[in-house]
Specification:
By secondary structure, the chain is α/β, with parallel strands linked by helices. The chain is about 50% helix and about 10% strand. The structure holds guanosine-5'-triphosphate and magnesium ion.
Length: about 325
Amino acid sequence: MGPADGLAPPANSLAAAVLAGDRLSLARLLTQVENDTSLGRIALDQLFPYAGRAHLVGVTGSPGVGKSSLVNRIAQALRRPERGQLRTVGIVAIDPTSPFTGGALLGDRVRMRDLAGDPGVFIRSMASRGALGGLARQTFGMVQVLDAAGFEVILVETVGAGQAEVDIARLAHTTVVIEAPGMGDEIQAIKAGILEIADILVINKADRPGVESTERSLREMLEMGYPPRHPKKQFALEGQAAAWLPPVLKTIATAKTGVEDVVQAILAHRIYLEQTGEWQQRQLERLESEMEILVQVTLRERWRAALPDGVYDETLARLCERKISPYGALERLLGDR
Ligand SMILES: Nc1nc2c(ncn2[C@@H]2O[C@H](COP(=O)(O)OP(=O)(O)OP(=O)(O)O)[C@@H](O)[C@H]2O)c(=O)[nH]1
Ligand SMILES: [Mg+2]
């Protein structure tokens, strides 16, 4: 599958090598995309027509809830030969360089070691960067490359903490939100608006005390009028297909318990999306949010580059002294209005 031959990337290009299934080229291209090089951008353009087939699954939750452990288990389950339909799996793990768990990249490598050597799996960790929209943009790019390379399910692990993560969740067709007993996670999840993006809720570390109360509070919240992502759509679908109510599942990732239910829920969600037409809707929303992020980031970069030296700092200083108002600052910085 893919576009007509006339549009195929030039022979010997990085993009062509990736399409041909060369893993070394894939790794090299992902680095180019992560560093936002012009080579990376060219390859992304060339690969775009080949992407759009993968099932993109976001896996998010607070630091240390067991995201990497569960992603590893989900990937293993998708690769088990006894499963009727084997699926190739791409994994993008975004390392929050969190002060809580420090050294997560190394840890992830250990947790995902079981998958090493399987040609149907490709794992990539990425360090998060501070730049506005930068993380989301890199993640979109990486996912697009893995999609074009033919990976059928792409799992993206992010720490659910802020707007950047909500942006990243928007790139997924299916979002799995992971909680763990205790830790006051339920409250945190509400604060971050994370629950609103959940298609599947998982309580991991179900071997720990407090599972029942975590489950109870999650279910109560769902019943208390879970805000559906597409309220209008659900109205339109009345009588045709049942709306998706996020299941609440329990797992012990370290003991493989409950993982198969999560995999089944992920696969069922895809079928639900396809049968209701929501797949197309999410596809459109994903591309729209990618386009929006690119526009925002680019406009901001252009504006900063065009701003004469010192104007920014000077404006900020005057603002602090209350010599100009925020709107006055805007006028100075944009030179119009
Ligand atoms: N008891 C118990 N421990 C678990 C379970 N799942 C994961 N862990 C442990 O919890 C710790 C964190 O697991 P990770 O998989 O790294 O969690 P994470 O959410 O990816 O962490 P960050 O990426 O650093 O935010 C590790 O020591 C795991 O072995 C579980 O079901 N039960
Ligand atoms: Mg992790």
